[in-house]
Batch of 3 targets.
Target 1
Amino acid sequence: MTTISASMVKELRDKTGAGMIDNKAAPTETNGDMEKAIDWLRKKGLSKAAKKAGRVAAEGLVGVTAAGKAAALVEVNSETDFVARNEQFQDMVRKIAALAAHAKGDVATLLATPYPNSKETVETFVKELVATIGENMSVRRTAQLEVGEGVIAEYVHNKVADGLGKIGVLVALESKGDKAALSTFGRQLAMHIAAASPAALTANELDPVLIERERAVYTEQAKASGKPADIVAKMVDGRLRKEFYQQVVLLQQTFVGAGGDGKATVEQMLKSVEKSAGAPVKIGKFVRFALGEGIEKKEDDFAAEVAAAAGQQQ
């Protein structure tokens, strides 16, 4: 039998908002599988969260750099926010970001790149800074976008310095239209992406696993209506189109950036900007890095630490 720990219950409570008893029952029903436990709660109607990311625990910075028709992102992690505010760390992230465009999204290539004004590679320089500062650091990931005709727009959220922050976004707009109009809309769109966190540009680009997970939840809920299987299937397909896709597909999301009316979708805004740009506009690709997403950091028990320290002093 799977042992359900207090930390598992707390994690479910933080992610779903369900009651304590239900948060204890869910992992028991799923043999400790936390993702399945969240889905179990949703199927029972006990969780209001349709799509909620786990707690971001890793510290560090996201660096953004742009040069002409190419731009890049890099995430460099540290153990504490104190180090992320260190000017030496910030300077390192900024320089690594400047090199990232040449790595074309490959971390291994970036790590093997010579570090500016040094005989070391990026990887070796980071290791040396770890020894100097006394805290673990790592270049976690990088991405690069380029465009033939058009612009690459960028946006940094929670900016701590030029090109450095907690969320970084790049979006490529392909068009032969007016560059000023494209740049203005591109920045608005990048801000929208930072806020709305789309999973894909179109529904066809969504991860099939993600779609099937939502389908399973909607199916379980629709079955409770007692309707025939064919009606249930139509209900599920309708909810996927009208609810899920509108939440996570960029072109179908309601545009929340400047210039929107709170009703128009990103796709509709794209058609609107074509008039001011004087040419067709297409979103090529987009990239969004949120610092520490997908990383869980060990939570220290402060009370236990104090108790242990007190015991050592006796």
Target 2
Amino acid sequence: MKVETGYYAQKLNSGKLYEVYRTRIPRVIRYLQAEIDFVRGHLRGEEKVLELGAGYGRIMKELAPFLLRITGIDIAEQSVAFGKEYLKEIPNCTIEVMDAHSPKFDETFDVVLCLQNGLSAIKGDPENLIRRSVRLLAEGGKAFFSSYSPKFWEHCLAWFREQADRGLLGEIDMEKTGNGRIVCKDGFTATTFDLRDMERLGELSGCRYRVEEVEESSIFLILFKDPE
């Protein structure tokens, strides 16, 4: 979801972000696991992986046993500090403070991930995020981007209500919320990328791509950087 600049870095970071994923809503739990399972199904076990907008490393920890090495970057210093502790027992995980729109690496990756609606949650131009991701991919590599499916809207709204009730987000402004857009009274505004948006981004990437709905909860854009 598209987030106001700095919201995750300033308000919803570290321990608060951790609490977001301790949801009690079974359908949301299923959605979160389905995204991880979908990516895991595309791994052979030998990949070097980069996750953009990794938060505190929730997804990294789940995927680490199924790949060679995973690096996560996030712009929120408090989330990364929390993540270093959260991942300290996992030797093939590294998490660093870095802006996904201007990543600095001397290597390429077999897989780039931007999950859980990261295309929107990461501030800035999503087209630039796509371009940067493609540059970081090794030949033959794949990039995965996900957003919420329209079929998941009621469950998504219930999840955000749960977060607001627990004080993790501001109160939801129901007069302004609807049609895939969530607005909170503390300034948080969120929208989703639909199938057409994903297809447009796929075309702009210059890569072979596929758009796929997963578990009626996520829409995935998968980019394939074919060897030249």
Target 3
Amino acid sequence: MYKPNPVSIDPRMEGRRERRAAPAAEGKLAASLAHEINNPLDSLLNLLYLMQAEATLTERGHYYWKLAEEEVQRVSQIAHAAMDGFRVTVRKDTNVPELVGSVVDLYRSRFETRRISINIRGCLNGDVPIYAGPLRQVLSNLLLNAVDATPKGGAVHVRVSSAQEWSGQQRQGLRVTFADNGGGIAAEHLPKIFDPFFTTKGSGGSGLGLSLVKDVVQKHDGSLRVRSSTKPGRSGSVFAIFLPAA
């Protein structure tokens, strides 16, 4: 589809260097902010519980309500992880195609508003050991980035497939791919897109989304590859994550 400019990231090597250099002050600030965020989140969860008893919803409404509750709980878990020094200790076997599908469902109205078609393909035997909360955040970031890059009437393709690692140990696992037909990423920006606070969205972006993606992929001992082209009529970007099965 594209003749892309590829960028490959080995998060395991970069992660070791970055963890050694991480300033303690930044961790303390993050934990402090997380503590302040967590209090209203707990209140919001309680309000959702109370409102559910009062509301009359359709079956679809209850489904969206459940998704909203799960998203608030996920934010709360992220806040708790920050307060604990970002330590995540337990991976659980999880059906990744189902996890991807739930993320797509959560944002489907955004696609429809912008008249963007979303094409999703899963695979059988899609269970691998993951940190479900952090990976869900990664999937949300990559999906929303693809939507933001895609013009009205465009398309986003999401695929989960059984795969082998591109290099290194060539482990077996799953590959999750997000592809869009947007304007693409300029070649001079590609080496910097995973740097904290680097953004091409101007005031509309924080520059933290892809940095988080890289951090979570390295927590999974996985790998990440990006391809992008800005050629007129052949532009677009592909982000692919490899998650090892063991």
